[in-house]
Amino acid sequence: MELQISSRVCQNVLITTVLSICFSGILFTYYKPTVNWINQQTVSRPDSCNDICINALKMSNQTEMVNITSITNLLTQAEPVTPTDPDTILLIWMWPFGAKFDLGICRSRYNIHGCRLTDNRDQFNNAHGILFHHREIKENDMPTLPRPPFQKWIWMNMESPSNSGPRSALNNLFNLTATYRLDSDILVPYGRISAKTGGKTTYTIPHKNKLVCWIVSNWNSNHKRSQYYESLKQHISVEAYGRGFNKPVSNEDYSGFVSSCKFYLSFENSIHKDYITEKVYHPLELGSVPVVLGPPRKNYEELIPGNAFIHVDDFSTAKDLAEHLKLLDQNEDLYRQYFTWREHFVASSTYFGPEHACWACDHIRRYKNYRAVNDLNGWYWG
């Protein structure tokens, strides 16, 4: 009996030692700082543990010793923030599309406190994070000073891979990503569906005098959306506007136009994972039913109630879709089913630029763990 106990104690000590070494290796790998971005090298990081750790966990009666999920949470958990903590400084290195916005917007619009935005590059050494917008990135306009060890470089992009090209210099450069992708470090989708404050309320559908509408500026006959439109209009009337049809709609008229349509063609210009844009969220806000063309329905339903939209993939042909829209036009009860979600939720659109900056600043304020994006091109364009 004493021999068995001694053997078990030795086994436990050995396993505990192995796991401690593995855990220390993980911490060293994740927290080892990179000072100069010019000389950054790719670091091979374990997903969780190496084989010796996994084998140790598989030994009898040891599976409860260490919870790998707990290790992951330890590396990524938010740290407590108090009102007395110094402000987190986010430097906007280049304005997205050259459009400036109010630097004090985080507190006034998003109720985010303790974040200070600046575009003063003299603050480089003091900034906790720097925001870079993909379209404006130029090799001759990037920081050349050594990066402070604590500083996070944030890559921001809202264009799909088809509409923004990869660049070899982007790998091993950034710490965080801020995009519409659900697997981004800082998720900033094109819009949100949020619970109503105050509980369930009745929604009044706006007055309709148009059946199917579409506004498009970028017409390309090779796009799937253009080809689908050509088929659909053979079976149902579509009121098409925008620069693509030489019938522009002004900003002042846009809301009234969309809200007057029973259905709106929310067709994306390219089809990619999670690429669900304002083309969907604006009609949802304005009381029209989006007919979507983009990623699969399941992807949409990760962000939007399934009964709030119609997906072209739900129908074998454009003719079948047209027949369904005509049926809904003739049956008010069926049509109203697409608005039941409005009793509990509201739709809103993202403010491009300000929301990215504020959420990015709030993220680096709360999460201090080391993070590096080694293969940005492979993740986004792969």
Automatic annotation (TrEMBL):
Catalytic activity: an N-acetyl-alpha-neuraminyl-(2->3)-beta-D-galactosyl-(1->4)-N-acetyl-beta-D-glucosaminyl derivative + GDP-beta-L-fucose = an alpha-Neu5Ac-(2->3)-beta-D-Gal-(1->4)-[alpha-L-Fuc-(1->3)]-beta-D-GlcNAc derivative + GDP + H(+); an alpha-Neu5Ac-(2->3)-beta-D-Gal-(1->4)-beta-D-GlcNAc-(1->3)-beta-D-Gal-(1->4)-beta-D-GlcNAc derivative + GDP-beta-L-fucose = an alpha-Neu5Ac-(2->3)-beta-D-Gal-(1->4)-beta-D-GlcNAc-(1->3)-beta-D-Gal-(1->4)-[alpha-L-Fuc-(1->3)]-beta-D-GlcNAc derivative + GDP + H(+); a beta-D-galactosyl-(1->4)-N-acetyl-beta-D-glucosaminyl derivative + GDP-beta-L-fucose = a beta-D-galactosyl-(1->4)-[alpha-L-fucosyl-(1->3)]-N-acetyl-beta-D-glucosaminyl derivative + GDP + H(+); an alpha-L-Fuc-(1->2)-beta-D-Gal-(1->4)-beta-D-GlcNAc derivative + GDP-beta-L-fucose = an alpha-L-Fuc-(1->2)-beta-D-Gal-(1->4)-[alpha-L-Fuc-(1->3)]-beta-D-GlcNAc derivative + GDP + H(+)
Top-rank taxon: Eukaryota
Protein topology in the membrane: Single-pass type II membrane protein
EC annotation from Swiss-Prot or TrEMBL: 2.4.1.-
Domain Fucosyltransferase C-terminal, first and last residues per copy: 206-379
Occurrences of domain Fucosyltransferase N-terminal (ranges): 87-191
Keyword entries, A-Z: Disulfide bond, Glycoprotein, Glycosyltransferase, Golgi apparatus, Lipid metabolism, Membrane, Signal-anchor, Transferase, Transmembrane, Transmembrane helix
Pfam families in the cross-refs: Glyco_tran_10_N (PF17039), Glyco_transf_10 (PF00852)
Entry keyword Manganese: no
UniProt cross-references to InterPro entries, sorted A to Z: Glyco_tran_10_C (IPR055270), Glyco_tran_10_N (IPR031481), Glyco_trans_10 (IPR001503), GT10-like_C_sf (IPR038577)
This protein's pathway: Protein modification; protein glycosylation; Glycolipid biosynthesis
Primary localisation category: Golgi
Subcellular location: Golgi apparatus, Golgi stack membrane; Golgi apparatus, trans-Golgi network membrane
Transmembrane segments: 12-31
Enzyme class, UniProt record, top EC level: transferase
Family the UniProt entry places it in: Belongs to the glycosyltransferase 10 family.
Subunit (UniProt): Homodimer.
UniProt-recorded name of the protein: Fucosyltransferase
